[in-house]
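[scheduler] slot 2 assigned
[scheduler] job type: sequence-to-structure, two independent chains
[scheduler] chain ordering preserved from manifest
[runner] begin chain α
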Amino acid sequence: MPSTMETHPKSLDGSEKSPESKDLLTSHTASTLCISSRSESVWTNTPRNKWEIYHKPIVVVSVGGAIFLFGVVVTSLSCFITTNAAVYKMCGPAFLSLGLMLLVCGFVWIPVIRKKQRQRQKSHFFQNIKSFFFNR
């Protein structure tokens, strides 16, 4: 028998369990999924305030604005400071484009969240109507 082959246990009854099966038995995937989900409002019906809904796009817009302003400063330094002007001319537009990209992504993200909220409210409304008519 070659040395590269694994040896598998002969029986996997209750007395002899492989480490993989022990991991599977102790794993609570359903509860872990609910806890670690990105949007817990899917699993709970508690209403969220505006900050909980919009904090990620607000952070992206804020960081994008800061990077964009930094790019404006670096680009304008290339006009006023003659030493290392090539570095400023290279880095300035890079920060400008990165900041503008984050600004646009954040501003586009907000209407997407609003549309998602409206769809969620509509589906909630239709589920309530369906349960009202079919549970009689």
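[runner] end chain α
[runner] begin chain β
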Amino acid sequence: METPHHSLPPGAGRGETGSGGCRRCPYWAAGRRLGTSDEILQEGAESSRRQLLIEAFVSAGRVDNITMVMGLHPQYLSSFWKTQYLLLRMDGPLPYHKRHYIAIMAAARHQCSYLVGLHMGEFLQVGGNPAWLQGLHCAPQKLRNLNEINKLLAHRPWLITKEHIEALLKPGENSWSLAELVQALVLLTHYHSLASFVFGCGINPEEDQDGEHGCRPPSPHSDSSPASDDSLGGSGGKDAMQEVEVLMERMKLLQESQLEEEGVTQEEMATRFELEKTESLLVAPSDIADHSLQSNVLCFVEDPEFGYKDFTRRGEQAPPTFRAQDYTWEDHGYSLINRLYPDVGQLLDEKFQVVYNLTYNTIAMHCGVDTSMLRRAIWNYVHCVFGIRYDDYDYGEVNQLLERSLKIYIKTVACYPEKTTKRMYTQFWRHFKHSEKVHINLLLLEARMQAALLYALRAVTRYMT
């Protein structure tokens, strides 16, 4: 799953200033703050990555640290960047300043002061009213009305109903148009998921971004495997290498069994999903980050205690499982978005496809490996913890391929990213390269975004029919 090594664009690290008085280019700052060593950023040349970072700098006058880390996977970065550019800077139903304010609202739900600070600056640059930044209570009622659906999308999207959509579209002084609401839903899910990526990779603010940051885990400091760090010692390194070999063997056995097996019954498939969903209740981090809400974030959050709750718990009335085949992205979500917000559906679809199929046919020190089974297990496990089931998928594969420490990491980053710790990052796949762990975070970002979008768009469809 790893990526090749890349080099920085010409001029990187010299603090060059963009046109129009924009802030200095933070290439060097990112390299130092993130600890991105020569092994990642200066060994070899990769024209696609270099060109992408130059384009980002020319466009915005800066390259943020999210772009630097995503740049480890240039094919994905290109797709992500096009989508985000359309959402924030191209024609659409919502004015530019409101788009950035929605981004602030979304990031604040996960206490991501990095993204909140970034978009407070962008909000002011496009002419937003500074008074709104005093807190949600100072924003127009129309934006404040998004609070409930923002809260549900961030933490429990399965609770969204057509009544939530109807309340926002109800005629009146502060009503939303359907096109505006669809753009807002895409923005909210985009920034909830991006907060997961920020915490999952431990991305720090650029040196010239004001204010404290809340991103605790350090970003990858090199593209060598974490197992090569001195902290693991001799036996730790051997154990980490053994983990790789066990995973390789399990993938081989599963592939062989699929060729020999006549097929698992639908009943057995359903049983295995319910088992995995129930077992996910037991997957919880033991070392949760102490993450107190900062004032610059708290002012944009109402009901801060509301958070992710396991999709189903024993003794409680569980919502019905979302059968993926009943409302798919390909057949339903894609066409609905494209109808109400042209072009964005196509770009989202491309982004989902790119990350789902992204592979370098490597695992740790092994080359020529088919990683499709592993990528599918990660994607489907994220959807599982959000209550989405694929009838044609054997969830027994999840237990075979995803070790407990990886499950803890996936669930934490996808469901309550602000609780991610450095230890969670270092404990799973200890012999894998940092770029491979970034690759996992890209899968988490997109799987989470698609899951929340499916719930929201299903509610919109039910409202319309």
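[runner] end chain β
[qc] chain β: The CA atoms of residues 135 and 295 lie 10 Å apart.
[scheduler] slot 2 released
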